[in-house]
Amino acid sequence: MPQDAPTPDADARRHSAALATRIRAAADAAGGTLRFDRYMAMALYEPGLGYYSAGQARFGSGGDYITAPLASTLFSRTLAHQCAEVLTRLGGGDVLEFGAGTGRMAADVLTELAALQRLPQRYRILEVSATLRQEQATAIAELPADIRERVEWLDQLPDEPFRGMVLANEVMDALPVRRFQITEDGIHELAVAHDGEKFQYRLIPADDTLTMAIREIEADLDAPLPPGYVSEYCPALAGWLQTLADCLDAGTALLIDYGYPRREYYHRQRAMGTLLCHYRHRAHDDALWWPGLQDITASVDFTAAARAATNAGLALQGFTTQANFLMGAGLPGLLEAEMNRDPQAAAAATQQAKPLLMPGEMGERFKVLAVGRGLTDPLSGFGFADQSGRLNVHRRHS
Fold first, then answer.
1. CA distances (Å), 338 to each of 183, 331, 334, 350, in order?
2. 166 in Cβ contact with 251 (< 8 Å)
3. 59, 72, 172, 310 from 66: Cα distances, Å
4. How far is residue 93's CA from residue 55's CA, in Å, rounded to a whole number?
5. I need a surface site. Which of 289, 325, 388, 397 has the fewest CB within 10 A?
6. Is the whole-model pTM more than 0.70?
7. In the predicted model, what is the mean pLDDT of the chain?
8. Residue 190, strand partner residues
């Protein structure tokens, strides 16, 4: 459990207990154990009960964590400059945002695009949570009428070919993952079981799909993973990117998340994996604690993401750290303009920008991957430093 975390109140505990009952029933129906990706999917997305499906506060000081758009408007304003560049090259188009959270990023991106005179034809938000749609609508309602009328909400990706900019900030880390452990006897899956009340992990034999995935990882590492090694593999990542590729006719998908290239993700020193949970601004790794009340994430294997995108027909347009991307995409110019306008406000903005850029905070931990089609010139966000070579995308195994 998270150290020093406040105890959930009675209503929250009842909410979690209802979800736990469903999870136990699912485990019983599956023969006593659930694959972790199934447990994670229920804990996060079970209708009416999952962490992302219920109505509790998740973002900001009253929630469980802070995202970059809430840390500083400079994050979204800088993304807007990259959006403007793509829209200009395409001769217009739309912006599509996956999972818009509080709606703050959408509002700030649109405000900056209006200032740049590069508003999209439509700003489309793919959001499945009714509660979050309401929160996003409140943020959008603050915008001038000629801007907010461009915003629409989607239940799924558009059926017609999409041209423009796709934004996915902290989306891939919430895709359900399978957990595995290397033992002296080979690869095993870490599944979820229960004793009637408490959940616990149970080792079960790995199936062919998981075994093949781990063998591919080991081939990339040029070495087998050692006994005792625990980590994750995301089977949903390739399908998610294939669906995105099927929709994108021309433009760029900007995927921003915490994670690593494969050789760093599965480094021997990262022997307990990357699973991370958030509850009331406490980070921990106990995913079985009060299901439905906490976020559960895993770092992104950006090599897997880039390979899945290129296998789906998209081009790799750039990869770098969040700090490098923001520097290349225009954040220094925004700070300089703020300094010329109001030195006192610029000093405050500079302080707010530090979490976005500092290596010990979001600057190095978060990465930015751009994939797309129909654009040949480099994107400005990767002009400061493009580290696509770290991904080893085109390696082929015999």
1. 56, 11, 6, 10
2. yes
3. 6, 10, 17, 31
4. 33
5. 397
6. yes
7. 93
8. 203
